Amino acid sequence: MIRTVFDIFRQAIRRFNNSDDWALASHVALSVLFGLFPFVIFFTILIGWASRWLYGADAIADQAVLFLFDGWPEAAAEPIAAEIRNVLGVPRKGLLTLSALLTLILASNVIEALRVPLNRTYGFKDKRSYLRLRFQSIGFIIIGSLGFLTTLLLLVLAPVVLTVAGHYVPNLASQVDGFQLFRIAAAATVLALCLLAFHRWLPAGRRRWRTIFPGVVFTMVGFVVASSLFGAYLDGFARYADTYAGLAGFMIGIFYLYCLAAIFIFGAEINAAIIERRNASKANQAANI
Questions:
Q1: What count of Cα atoms within 13 Å lies in the side-chain half-sphere of residue 170?
Q2: pTM for this structure?
Q3: Higher per-residue confidence, 241 vs 278
Q4: Closest alpha carbon to 268 in 25, 7, 33
Q5: How crowded is residue 188: how many other Cβ atoms within 10 Å of its Cβ?
Q6: pLDDT reading at 163 higher than 80
Q7: In 83-115, which positions are buried (b, 16+ CB within 10 angstroms) versus exposed (e)?
Q8: Upper half-sphere CA count for residue 232 (Cβ side, 13 Å)
Q9: Residue 64 Cα distances to 57, 165, 237, 246, angstroms
């Protein structure tokens, strides 16, 4: 078992180095950074549209920043988070305006950026039409925004509900103190669902759920480990301000996104290595019959 895992990782590393994955990680990182602000703008439009039914829209906006950057090293998150707070602070309405539609299209570029390395990694040339792919990307953004809004609404309401319930059930007091764990669990669930959806439906071809689980698990664990190591590196060794001056914060954020993008692509390479190994095994079995 250990030998098999070692062989899969070695094969994934070889695939990663022999393809354009290092360059694609840069492409994904920059696309995520550029697409993050259109996504946030569209999300604020969504909050403005839903504010007639939702109370506490400001609290939802505050939770959005915490939720988006939960787990990021502080030095990497703060410069981007500060600008996103400014974007969230501008009220916007009109879900079906031309500006909203343009923002939605720009935000969908993030999904298109993720599609490229997944297609290359899984060995597919996407023959679907441009419009079909673009509508799929827009659908991902809309569904993701609605899911994001629902999750944030639950996060806003959870402390209130637990506090009120604590007056009637004293044992719930400890659960109120553990709200941070609830938020981490929600973030992990959202991340897992997004990764599963990306690997399942973004690239061409078909993959079974069991085939994409290993790469998703590796990606989630890799994100946690990378965040911890990157934070320790920034605290103990890095002196970005000496090199990049006022741009240090954004350069840290870009480099951190680059690390996450590389981990995401390597997770796909693990899945591809497993698929390749299984196909080779089936071919050998068929040849021996």
A1: 0
A2: 0.84
A3: 278
A4: 25
A5: 15
A6: no
A7: ebeebbeeebeeeeeeebeebbebbbbbbbbbb
A8: 5
A9: 10, 25, 31, 26
